[in-house]
Amino acid sequence: MMDGYTAGGGSDPASLVSQDRRRSLPAGFSRAGRLLRELYARPSSALGTTLVLVFFFMALFGPLIAPYSATEQIAGAARQAPSLQHLFGTDHLGRDVFSRVVLGARDILALAGLGTLIAVVIGTLVGMFSAYRGGWVDEISFRLFDSLLALPALLLALLLLGVVGPSRNSVLVVLVIVYVPIVARVVRSVVLSTKQKGFVEASRVQGESTSAIVRRDIFPSVTPALTVEAALRFSYAIFLVASLGFLGVGVQPPNPDWGLMVSQARPYVSLTPWALWFPAAAIALLVVGVNLAADGLKRVLLPGRQS
Amino acid sequence: MNKPSPPVLQVDGLTVAYRRGQQSLAAVRNVSLSIAAGQAYGLVGESGSGKSTLALAVMQYLPENGQITGGAVRLAGQDLATLPREQMQQVWRDQIKLVPQDPGASLNPSLRIGDQLDEALRDGGETGQELRSRSLEQLRQVRITDPERVAASYPHQLSGGMQQRVLIAMALARQPSLLILDEPTTNLDVTTEAAILDLVRDLVQDHRTAILYVSHNLGVVATLCDRVAVLYAGEMVEDLTTQQLRLRPLHPYTAGLLDSVPRVGQRAGVDPLLPIAGNIARLDALPAGCVFAPRCHLAQQPCLDVRPELEETSDGGLVRCHRWREIAAGEVSASAARPATIVVQNDAPGDASALAMTGLVKRFPVRRSLAEMLRRTSARQVHAVDGVSLHVAPRRTLGLVGESGSGKTTTARCVVGLAERTGGEVTLFDIVLAPGLDARDASVLRRLQMVFQNPDEALNPYRTVGDVLQRPLQRLMGLSPAEARAEAARLLEAVRLSPAYLDRTPGQLSGGEKQRVTIARSFASNPDVLILDESVSALDVSVQASILNLLTELQAEQGSAYLFISHDLAAVSYLADDIAVMYLGQIVEVGPTELVLHPPFHPYTEALLSAVPRLDGATEESIRLPGDLPSAIDPPGGCRFHTRCPRLLGDICREQEPPWQEAAPGHRYRCHIAPDELAAVQVIAEQNGRLRREMSGAGR
Predict the structure, then answer these.
(1) Contact state of B460 with A8 under an 8 Å Cβ cutoff
(2) What is the pLDDT of residue B23?
(3) Does B182 reach chain A within 8 Å, measured CB to CB?
(4) Which of B137, B138, B200, B193 is CA-nearest to residue B170?
């Protein structure tokens, strides 16, 4: 009884004065700046955001940072432990692990990022129109998506890659196929609750076309949930790309893919454990970083839904 | 009731502050009150006045960022702030109980009512059977006629009124000394509200429970409470007996609240409401002098500079106003000056109709199996609207009243095309409207617009006001963006908002401002007919009054016809030239407002009228409808109202559909009782009621 009450106390002055003004932002940079400031207001999301920014920096300026190329086999320097010369040591073929980790950032971020982006765009379009229109098309497409969701992402990815063969492009296609249903489902649930609202009905009564309503009324309501979902998808995509690389069905050698590096270093783990640790740690740090940042985004953009 | 007894609740100089960032905002400042056993004390104010905060502080149950920073709350002499947590839990369990606004959210959806009630009653030691029989007894006490069925139900199977009764039963289970009711009837129909108020009034008398009743509705408080405190922006501005409230409130704010609530039969053109100007003061920008001064019509220089003290009046009340002595002496009036009478230029009712419904039917299928879904058939249907014929004359207002579930909103949605009608015809002047919106072209849409119920949801939170207003101007009226912006500014002025609002987003507007914008939006295409679906119900009384006046003025200026839908008979009668009363999908009475409000009327209309809380005190012979609205899936045969009718004749009502009776030219109702017979009994009932009210010493 008491709990129900506190949830319903809407007319007290605290809610009057602390009215959320975040929603009234002018678009553009000040918005991104404010978002960043709010992310840095909490230690955990500040840490996550920093990690993500560091990795993005590596991806952008990798060739300037890395002292060696990714494939260069340094003569007479195989299996060296970490030192000032080779910060992360060298692997069994004499390649500089630090350089490979730094250069690998671009691959994994680009692949996971592009895959997420395409999946989010397609998923959003499908989810918005299907949910807004409703009816049996919506019913059938989402039953289909549900059946896809029943398969674990990695299993589905392996199946698909078995059909199309491993390559960077196939990994991209697989990411899109795996994540479109998930994104579409999130978008759909927001649309279903938004389309009942008075402002959507008001637009209908004023003769707005379906596409205008979806674009002007529905899409802005979807963006907060979508941003959070995209960030989460991104973190899973990184993990999936690395897993596929490790299993040998993703990015192919000699590319400096982190998952691939872990898998290649595995037979030599007693000789060159560092060649395994560092790429593994990079994967872990990036995934944790993106997750913490996504969690922070959720707190900022979707307050009151922190389950 | 007049015996001096020690107060159950004593609040002394209570100050409550909320932390917001680095700021501390005092939402309640230095409030004192006391409630004796068997006394009902009302706490009244607009949203933001601090009344809920005060209630929570009394319970020592403030949200995390709230804190009592001064004063004390004593329950039977015991300072609650000093109690350790375990003892406070005892107090919550046994002594202070709260009945909240939203009953649905306060019951556990996954437990049966009986089990939840058993839990509240459990002392330890009794058998399950003893416990259950006490639970059933408790349900009977709150006048639930079939306690066994209710105990076996889950919360979602009960109506809002029934849920609220259950919560009151739970709250009273352990015979608490103090019962706090926080807007317990705000979300309920008037008929249900009346029944709940009767119940609470009787419980106070039987159990001598002290009651703190929080509400924004002075009418409700006046029917129930002995004493009323009026809160404004966290300060008590007046504390007076209900008697004084009816006769002569001293504070201009109290007077303003009273003058904002339409009485049944009060008409916009004759006796306009006097809304309070402006918005409630923000806690982070409180005025230096009297907190109410910026909105007060009596404010003078001292009012703006010096904060008035709470002073005792000659008849034992308290008032915080520099000028109360002048008001008491009758030198100035606490009520705001009457505005120039709103000009109402309604044409006499002619034969032409702007909007006409003929035999409008809307059924919703209830599909319960896959086979039904595939075949697109259904054995059961909800008869939401069942043969409604109404017409709205040009430049006039038709009010449509009924309880929730009567089909008013579905009727509106079928008219504008948001729902596709199952049968019947809707015409706009001479054009037959297509059932669905997609099949209606822009010229029709332009002439028929709608204002939605909830202003918070009616505006896209991500669009500026200018954007919202320009869109229909460009689409429906074919204006260029520049023209549309100029026209949008003009529309804002028409709804008494400054053009500066063009660049604001809904998040920056108050509820009343939002509703003004939605009204401006629907006037953008200068419609011939405007549908207003519960458009003022969600607003505070003072805001509601100003919106009602605005609608009247706009009608005079623009010449639109209104279909005004509300469950509030007083609001409808204020605005409408004609009234139609709806029950379970059918119109049961229709006619000019003056005639509908006087006998003879349909027994359902009689019950609705009787349920409206009146400032002059409720009559004990009020008509209360038993039970809930029957299901529209399988509506009762014969007269649909026979299951609840207070004037039931007998089998004829159960078996035969009632005929339309003509009470006067243009005034018809559907009942087996002939007009003269009905008038005879109803006039006597009315006179009895009036006599009783006069005898109880009231009368405004």
Answers:
(1) no
(2) 83
(3) yes
(4) B138
Query: Using CA of residue B522, residue B528, residue B531, residue B536, what is the dihedral sign?
Result: positive
Token pair, residue A97, equals 């692990």
Please classify residue B345 by burial: count the beta carbons closer than 10 Å to its beta carbon, then call 0-12 exposed, 13-18 middle and 19+ buried: exposed
Counting residues of chain A whose pLDDT is more than 70, the rounded percentage is 88
Which pLDDT value is given to residue B699? Answer: 38
> Rounded to whole angstroms, how far apart are CA atoms B4 and B393?
60
Residue B310: other Cβ atoms inside 10 A: 16
Q: In the structure encoding, which two tokens stand for residue B302, read together?
A: 């001292």
B373 or A24, which is more confident: B373
Using an 8 Å Cβ cutoff, are B220 and B258 in contact? no
Looking at chain B, the whole-number percentage of residues with pLDDT higher than 90 is 39
What letter represents residue B543's amino acid? V
Of residues B153 and A276, the one with the higher pLDDT is B153
Residue B696 scores a pLDDT above 70: no
HSE-up (13 A, CA, CB side) for residue B436: 2
Which of the pair, B126 or B403, is modelled with greater confidence?
B403
Q: What is the pLDDT of residue B576?
A: 93
b/e code B14-41 from CB counts within 10 Å (16+ = b):
bbbbbeeeeeebbbbbebbbbbbbbbbb
Among B93, B152, B83, B148, which residue's Cα sits nearest to residue B124?
B93
Q: Smallest CA–CA separation between A83 and chain B, in Å? A: 48
Q: Which helix (DSSP H) or strand (DSSP E) does residue B197 occupy?
A: helix B190-207
Which tokens in the block code for residue A54?
A: 């560091």
C-alpha B128: how far from chain center: 40
C-alpha distances in Å from residue B387, one per residue of B357, B358, B589: 9, 7, 14
Residues of B in contact with A4 (CB under 8 A): 100, 102, 105-107
Percent with pLDDT over 90 in chain A = 16
Task: Give the ipTM of the model, two decimals please.
Answer: 0.80
Judge whether residue A23 has pLDDT over 80.
no
Sort out which chain B residues have CB atoms less than 8 A from A23's CB and list them. 461-462, 505, 507
As a whole number of angstroms, the distance between CA B397 and CA B578 comes to 6
Cβ atoms of B662 and B668 closer than 8 Å: yes
**Of B617 and B219, more confident:** B219
How many whole angstroms from its chain centre is CA B88?
34
- Averaged pLDDT for residues B106-123: 89
Sign of the dihedral defined by the CA atoms of residues B133, B138, B139, B141, in that order: positive
Half-sphere exposure of A25 toward its Cβ, with a 13 Å CA cutoff? 14
The Cα B34–Cα B562 span in angstroms is 47
- At B366, the amino acid letter reads V
| Phi/psi of residue A143, nearest 5 degrees | -65, -40
pTM for this entry: 0.83
Distance CA B412, CA B402 (A): 13
Whether the pLDDT of residue A270 is over 60: the answer is yes
Predicted confidence at residue B484, as pLDDT, reads: 93
CB B252 within 8 A of CB B298: yes
Partners of A13 on chain B (C-beta within 8 Å) are 18, 25, 27, 48-50, 53, 233-234, 283
A204: chain B residues, CB-CB within 8 Å:
418, 437
Number of alpha carbons in the 13 Å side-chain half-sphere of residue B414: 29
Q: Residues B35, B178: contact at Cβ < 8 Å? A: yes
For residues B327-349, average pLDDT: 69
Residue in the block written with tokens 């609002």: B501
Substitution target from A199, A204, A215 for chain B, most B beta carbons within 10 A:
A199
Cβ atoms of residues B236 and B318 within 8 Å = yes
β-partners of residue A19 are none
Angle between helices A135-149 and A168-194 (to 10 degrees): 130
Element (H, E) at B31: strand B23-36
Instruction: Nearest chain B residue to A13 by CA: give it.
Output: B48
